[in-house]
């Protein structure tokens, strides 16, 4: 079975490698693309970014484009080599022309476009009831949207190691599937409720941009609940491996994607480093589970951050300890605000509820913004290191694995000794 899987991955990888080779031959040449905007455009500063298939487009802020629109793009293809097998291709400030779709009656339903429209309506509710950057921060926490985040605030998120709060992740998936199943379990059979919960997670994953972190979390969460239906106990390691295998089968080049690497290593850190740190911290002071998870994830991902980005947030744990408490509160209030706006619209009831709920969520959002900007404006928050080899990163992970194995083995030996003493 493993041989069949590896063969399929190899075939997919070879096909994509050939497609990339064709793009490499067009490097520094003017090309013309016709097609659909295949990702939700992200607004940052005076520009917007979106994708057309494998090509990244960066263009002026106006006119604003939407997911699914037909466009024609003309520009010079630029290539950024990630390694000898993988490159990123971009068109920087090309000529973009919107192509109006022909009025042809077509029986069908673009569910992805419908989900994106639903997401945009929620963002409009946030914008009506909150000012910036609070509205964009709320959209990032609830929906994983990065449309309205300014460059200065984006840099502050990076310097403080809090960028993960505006990227939909495992926590969001847990909330969505858990709430849906808990509410539907009383109306339908458990199996039906779980399947509807999984469908809701798929929709939320698309709405949040289908980035590597949330796709991985969606697969793992769906497998966990599906395992309950089958009467099998969830195994985190197996679910992580299953998620990785599925994602690489669909998109083998994800193995070179930084977002995918960070997501996988952060999850592995929670699984293997988290339990060890929990026992250590419990001996010295009382520490929240969120902080333990943050430290565990940081230990697992910081070599990648140093190698790829050349900088690392020195006080990420401190800043996260000050804002993580507010994230679930903001997410819950944001979801209520969005639903209230969708149900009641801009009428009297919608306006009153928007002001009340918006006022409640505005306070923690403002506090989070002040903390992030306050620490993010300090240059010393970020450690800058250049020209670090991947061999150094592999050595770090080898040492980390050895330490984890030795500590777990020591714990098992200690427990065995205690058992022997009790028996004697």
Main attributes of the structure:
single chain; OB fold (Dihydrolipoamide Acetyltransferase, E2P); 62% helix; 14 helices; two-stranded antiparallel ribbon; alpha+beta; seven-stranded mixed sheet; disordered C terminus; 424 residues; globular
Mean of the pLDDT scores?
78
Characterize the biggest β-sheet. 7 strands, mixed
Total beta strands: 9
Structural class by SSE content: alpha+beta
How does this model look, in words?
- The chain is of the alpha+beta class and 424 residues long.
- Helices cover 62% and strands 12% of the residues.
- The chain has helices spanning 2-24, 111-129, 134-143, 151-159, 170-184, 190-207, 212-229, 236-250, 258-284, 289-309, 316-323, 327-344, 348-376, 390-423; strands spanning 30-36, 42-44, 47-52, 55-60, 70-81, 87-92, 95-99, 311-313, 382-384.
- Strands 1, 2, 3, 4, 5, 6 and 7 form a seven-stranded mixed sheet that branches. A two-stranded antiparallel sheet has the order 8-9.
- β2 (42-44) and β3 form a beta hairpin.
- The longest helix is centred in the C-terminal third of the chain and has 34 residues, at 390-423.
- The model is unreliable at 103-107 and 415-424 (pLDDT under 50).
């Amino acid at each position: 079975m493993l041989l069949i899987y590896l063969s399929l991955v190899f075939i997919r990888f070879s096909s994509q490698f050939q497609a990339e080779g064709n793009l490499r031959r067009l490097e520094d040449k003017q090309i013309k693309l016709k097609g659909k905007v295949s990702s939700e455009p992200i607004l940052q500063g005076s520009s917007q970014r979106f994708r057309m298939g494998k090509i990244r487009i960066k263009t002026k802020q106006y006119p604003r484009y939407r997911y699914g629109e037909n466009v024609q793009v003309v520009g010079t293809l630029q290539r950024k080599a990630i390694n000898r097998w993988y490159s990123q291709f971009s068109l920087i400030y090309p000529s973009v022309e919107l192509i109006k779709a022909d009025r042809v009656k077509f029986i069908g339903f673009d569910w992805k476009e419908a989900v994106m429209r639903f997401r945009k309506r929620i963002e409009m509710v946030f914008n009506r009831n909150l000012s910036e950057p609070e509205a964009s921060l709320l959209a990032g926490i609830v929906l994983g949207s990065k449309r309205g985040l300014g460059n200065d605030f984006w840099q502050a998120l990076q310097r403080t190691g809090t960028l993960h709060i505006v990227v939909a992740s495992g926590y969001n998936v847990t909330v969505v599937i858990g709430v849906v199943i808990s509410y539907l379990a009383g109306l339908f059979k458990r199996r039906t409720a779980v399947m509807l919960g999984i469908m809701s997670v798929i929709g939320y994953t698309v709405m949040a941009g289908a980035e590597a972190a949330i796709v991985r979390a969606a697969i793992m969460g769906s497998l966990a609940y599906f395992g309950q239906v089958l009467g099998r106990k969830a195994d985190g390691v197996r679910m992580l491996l299953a998620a990785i295998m599925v994602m690489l089968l669909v998109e083998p080049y994800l193995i070179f994607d930084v977002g995918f690497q960070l997501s996988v290593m952060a999850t592995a850190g929670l699984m293997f480093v988290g339990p060890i740190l929990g026992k250590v911290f419990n001996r010295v002071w009382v520490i929240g589970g969120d902080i333990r998870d943050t430290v565990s994830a940081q230990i697992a991902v910081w070599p990648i951050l140093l190698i790829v980005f050349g900088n690392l947030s020195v006080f990420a744990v401190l800043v996260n300890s000050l804002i993580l408490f507010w994230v679930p509160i903001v997410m819950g209030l944001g979801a209520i605000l969005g639903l209230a706006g969708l149900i009641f619209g801009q009428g009297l009831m919608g306006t009153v509820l928007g002001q009340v709920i918006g006022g409640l969520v505005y306070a923690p959002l403002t506090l989070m913004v002040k903390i992030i900007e306050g620490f993010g404006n300090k240059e010393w928050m970020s450690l800058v290191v250049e020209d670090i080899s991947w061999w150094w990163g592999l050595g770090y992970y080898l040492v980390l694995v050895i330490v984890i194995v030795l500590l777990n083995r020591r714990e098992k030996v200690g427990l065995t000794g205690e058992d022997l003493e009790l028996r004697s």
